[in-house]
Write a structure and sequence with these properties.
Blueprint (H helix, E strand, L loop, with lengths): L1 H72 L2 H10 L4 E11 L18 H13 L4 E4 L2 E3 L5 E4 L2 E4 L2 E3 L3 E6 L2 H8 L5 H7 L3 E12 L17 H4 L1
Antiparallel strand pairs: 1-7, 1-8, 2-3, 2-7, 4-5, 5-6
Length: 232
């Protein structure tokens, strides 16, 4: 009988120990889970704070970028560079010149090339307009800039690598009277053209539109010089 009671007591003690161990393990597991949850929450809060900070910085950078763009758009030096490079459309008062080959009868013993417009004739007109202060020029809607070529290409004229045939329309923005007078000087361009029967018509236009340069050129050899080197 005593042995049975002893075994029963041992069994109860064993069960109690098992429950204690299970309780301890559950307690440890619960604490570990809570700790992990706390760590995750801390990480979420940290990431949320970082995200808010980055969003704030992004907004600030966007504002600075817009300010810089607005300042660049209003920079007179930048506008002047665009005008000189011909990278933007322009409008203004100026003159329009129409040039066409001669329509007079040619003598059989005369050179027919004397009665048609050549690249050198167009270059003379362009140079006179530049010297008279033209601020923007186009030839058959091709913007004329410092690096524009005007050369003979068979029966046509190549301007910015685009071929054109007569009649040639030259537009120039500037003081109309000054530009027109420069072409009509005694012994000048217009008088020479009229001698050979080249057709010339010049008119003043209050609102002349000149398009931007349609092509761009890359620079392989020319490099910009900055700082002290530029001052030498």
């Amino acid at each position: 009988m005593k042995e049975i009671l002893t075994m029963d007591l041992k069994g109860k003690l064993l069960i109690a120990v098992v429950f204690m161990v299970l309780g301890f393990m559950l307690s440890v597991q619960y604490k570990a889970t809570e700790r992990q949850r706390s760590v995750r929450m801390d990480r979420v809060e940290d990431l949320s704070e970082r995200l808010r900070s980055m969003e704030s910085e992004n907004k600030q950078l966007q504002l600075e970028l817009e300010t810089l763009r607005a300042g660049a758009a209003k920079d007179p030096a930048d506008e002047r560079m665009k005008l000189m490079a011909g990278t933007t459309d322009v409008e203004g008062t100026g003159i329009e010149i129409l040039l066409d080959d001669s329509n007079i009868a040619k003598k059989s013993n005369e050179n027919p090339n004397l009665y048609i417009i050549h690249d050198e004739d167009l270059l003379r007109v362009l140079n006179e307009l530049r010297a008279a202060g033209a601020e923007a020029i186009s030839l058959n809607d091709q913007r004329i800039v410092a690096m524009s070529e005007v050369r003979c290409a068979g029966p046509t004229i190549s301007v910015n690598n685009v071929r054109s045939a007569p009649p040639y329309v030259i537009k120039a923005i500037g003081a109309p009277k000054t530009l027109s007078s420069a072409l009509r000087l005694r012994g000048g361009v217009v008088e020479t053209f009229e001698f050979w029967g080249i057709q010339v018509k010049i008119k003043t236009v209050e609102k002349l539109h000149i398009p931007a340069l349609k092509s761009s050129r890359s620079f392989e050899y020319a490099k910009t010089v900055e700082g002290k080197e530029a001052a030498k």
